[in-house]
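Loading example: each entry is read as two labelled lines plus one structure line.
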Amino acid sequence: KAGVTQTPRYLIKTRGQQVTLSCSPISGHRSVSWYQQTPGQGLQFLFEYFSETQRNKGNFPGRFSGRQFSNSRSEMNVSTLELGDSALYLCASSLDGGGGTGELFFGEGSRLTVL
Amino acid sequence: GNSVTQMEGPVTLSEEAFLTINCTYTATGYPSLFWYVQYPGEGLQLLLKATKADDKGSNKGFEATYRKETTSFHLEKGSVQVSDSAVYFCALSDSYSGGSNYKLTFGKGTLLTVNP
């Protein structure tokens, strides 16, 4: 079955712009999580959605937002981009959020470069 | 809050060498523990897991034992191959009920390079 699909895979933006990243989960998965991966901070949790509801949010400023649609697809948005937002953004899907089993299925990520 | 500390890399080994990557954690409740692997250019994949104390997770020749007394979950493999070259992440999920149930806390990752 198809894996987690993230688009776009690569993008370059300039400071002050905004960006929207998309994630299509594995069919049947209702939970989508987002993580930011940087060399300095590693993997940091952004937020998790289940059935269109945000259940948990990480420690990121309000410029980072997300949503989930009725078909479980998810988008995240970063407004007023800063240089420090350059990172690999990973989406992960699971049946229940992975809290119990840890079984998160990750996409290949969207690599954002902010100039 | 929850945290995971894993050994700094990079780790460079010759093929067939023994591998240990140390991981210790701090958590409230009763965490489940995981090792994820990220091959070059790919997303993370679950390698193995353990959900309670003294459990041993294993997969593809890798093993890790959940040690509650030392709050550790060290990854081991008896004989590494070139194809094992990747970044390895230790992670935990606090299985205690509550909002934190819906996220994993990851270590910073350890880059392993295996030379032929």
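The mean pLDDT of chain A is 92.
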